[in-house]
């Protein structure tokens, strides 16, 4: 079950919201967390009935290990507490290795996301950044919460611990949640799916049909698809969590406006970058132990970032590709970029990002070779064809919408229109939500192309 499906939108979501708000919020939200936990299990079981035990196992492992780590930390026995942290990390990474990298089992949906969330709990308790959660329902709701279970954002326990125990439910949070969810739904259904159709069309061409122009156009479409797809899902997750009274961290900040690769990775998949920084880069020494050690730490983080997405060669190369430019920027390139006009540094970043997605797009490395030949103008399809011209002209308006929609311009325009709260603002937002929802539903009723790229991670 995905958020951008009629089953979720017209059946599951109304049902869970109805039950959630009928249940009283007494006992510090234990009952509401129980509702969220049970419906989250149902949500996950709908797509992964076989592997629901795997998520529950991670939940139990970290609830027990985190509780024991907290017990010994409170008694100044950090040496003993460290044993349970290590045990948690080993078990979680072993499960991840077996089910994601061994190649013997079908990939459980969202395993990379909930494994990292689960591990962060035990580590945060050991570090003293969070108290051990005694209520298993609260902890179960944290690990399994369906809004961000399958594709993040990766929420660290320290970010949400107090909200699990006590949070407020207000009309403002619900209003914001509905608005944010609708924006994400529109991104996914009305933009990402359209960009995906262009990419699907181009990748469906034979080597003889694939021209230079169509190859460049197809990769541009993929660049937009993966942004609107993933950021749209994050928007929906943040919106849903707000409806349930939670505030969780942002995951995207208009990354295609970046002027360097360093800036790009501060804006793209923010929760994953912060997780690796907090639990890998800084514990290894960060940039505190000389340039050589810093480069090693960056290499390890980006090798693991590539591996987090998948064990195939393309993901590892994708991680190391960005590692190279990040190291170059840290040593000298960033200083050069800062002296350049904004336009040139922005173009530099977009070009590097563009070719990075070329590595990411296919797990089969042979497809990269065929595609690169076409992009370089030495493919079998030639420079351009009538079919390519038709594809380009018929999608020109869409490409312009994608380009503008991937920037902060729509947000700034909305801020100019909505200058203060009031009846007119509420009316405008309501009309906007209804329009997005109706258009998205109409597309889902009539369309058949509705993938979600990050489910495979």
Detailed description of the structure:
By secondary structure, the protein is mainly alpha-helical. The protein folds into 3 domains: 27-167, no CATH class; 169-252 and 385-457; 261-372, no CATH class. The chain has 20 helices and no strands. The protein has helices at 6-22, 26-47, 52-74, 78-101, 111-127, 136-144, 146-149, 157-165, 171-203, 212-243, 261-267, 270-281, 291-309, 313-339, 342-361, 365-375, 386-394, 396-405, 409-417, 423-446. α6 (136-144) packs across α8 (157-165). The model has no long low-confidence stretch (mean pLDDT 90).
The amount of beta strand, in percent, is under 5%
Helix percentage: over 70%
Radius of gyration: 23 Å
Average pLDDT over all residues: 90
Number of helices: 20
Sheet of most strands? none
Task: Give start-end ranges of low-pLDDT stretches.
Answer: none
Structural class: mainly alpha
- What characteristic shape results from the CA principal axes? globular
Strand segment count = 0
Taken in chain order, the helices and strands follow as HHHHHHHHHHHHHHHHHHHH
In whole angstroms, the N-to-C terminal distance is 16 Å
Count of separate structural domains? 3
